[in-house]
Amino acid sequence: MTQALAPQPNSPEHEPCIVMEPEEADFHPQHEGDFFRIIDQFETECSTVTIGFAKIAGAETKFTNERPHQLIDETPILLVPGFHGIKPGYKKLRGAIVETGRDATTYEPRLMQDLLTSMDPRRLIYPEKLTSKCAYAVMRALHQMYGHEKFDLAGHSMGGPIASDIALHKPEMVRSLILLGSAGLEDHNLISMAQRVSRFITKELIPAAPQLRNDFDHRIVGYVIRHSLGNPLLTAREMFDVCGRDIRSNIVKHGTDGIATFVFQFEDDSLFITERVWEQSGHLPDHFEIIQGSNHLAPQLQPDRIGHLIVQKHADNYGSN
Fold first, then answer.
1. pTM above the 0.90 mark?
2. CA distance 20 to 291
3. Per-residue model confidence as pLDDT tens digits over 9-19
4. Residue 142 near residue 50 (C-beta atoms within 8 A)
5. Cβ neighbours of residue 115 under 8 Å, at least 6 residues apart?
6. Which whole number is the average pLDDT over 107-123?
7. Would strands 47-56 and 36-43 be described as parallel, antiparallel, or unpaired?
8. How many Cα atoms sit within 13 Å of 307 on the Cβ side?
9. Which of 11, 60, 241, 243 is the most buried (most CB within 10 A)?
């Protein structure tokens, strides 16, 4: 177990990108394929930004891909968000990864559906099933757009089990898993998670509220509340799913499939307890690291540190290509 060391975000090696306003950018023609449609594409000083929709089962999920002009590794990183993952909440993490020379994508794990899909009984009974396929839909879209054969999946919180499920069912498309404060690495259930959520709100979320409000659009909080109240079945099923997940056996299988697993545990995580994760899963991944001075909201509160760390550890394992 080591403390994470990451380049300083404003060091000469990691000058921040300046995103040009759309009217100043060099737009490319819109394009559509079987699995995607691009709605916007423009250049920044150091990357090409593509915004589009990935198609799956009569529905679409919005994604943003950012590809640096100078790549250090051709394999893209897909950020799989946590519970009620809001794409802007991972924008700064995506930017930090791109600054280091890696292709990175975020997506909104909510689906725009046609009428037929929304009335599908399976969608009504198991609303979380189609939502969990969003990450795979984005992977398939990026494969068709750019020819990517493999991906590094970075799953935060509930996104960890989703990323693991993809690696389990589509191992040929996954090079590695990056689990950031992931669910499913220690024993937890509905009762224990209910107690932990209370601590998370009082110890992490409320103290971080001013920074989150300053760093992200304040409307995000309202969106989460409205979405939870407006989709009670989906919210409940996602909560039950994350409480009961156990992906420890998956990690063993990933190893036999040649998929490397990197586990980054946040020292002061109130939801997934560091000591328990270390005791029950520390021996399973290819790399296990406790990030000192961090909590479950580290991807939002410390995006530069976490983004640079992800790239650094991959460079140690795979080198630059």
1. no
2. 33
3. 443 334 455 44
4. no
5. none
6. 55
7. antiparallel
8. 28
9. 60
